[in-house]
Specification:
single chain; mainly alpha; Four Helix Bundle (Hemerythrin (Met), subunit A); 5 helices
Length: 138
Amino acid sequence: MRATFQRGVRLRADVTEKDSFMQHTRKYREQSRQFLAQAEQELAAGDLPQASEKAWGAAAQMVKAWAAQRGMPHQGHSLLWGAVADIEEQANDPEISRLFGVASRLHENFYESNMRARPVEYGIRDMERLVEKVEALL
């Protein structure tokens, strides 16, 4: 079994785990796309908190897909932000962090319900762009 280290975390990568990584990657990728579609539906129905949460979910799931593909831990917001920093570095694209910041704001809106329709709509468009950028790295 081969072990690698990334940001102080020990990661194992043998054949069985690589298969598992790919299964998780596929699952997260599909869920991301499903959440994007649901965000559009919720926006059209006028449910802004749900539209916001689905858009956040789309971003988070695609970041998880990227991390899972590499065998990186990705449970929790802190680890997602670490993965986002790595994605930004790999892509040499500073917009990645900005877009994930928008995702976090949308996630907050689920709890606070203080955004109007237009900013939620713009946020969903940003999540479409983020999902496409990260998916292109898979």
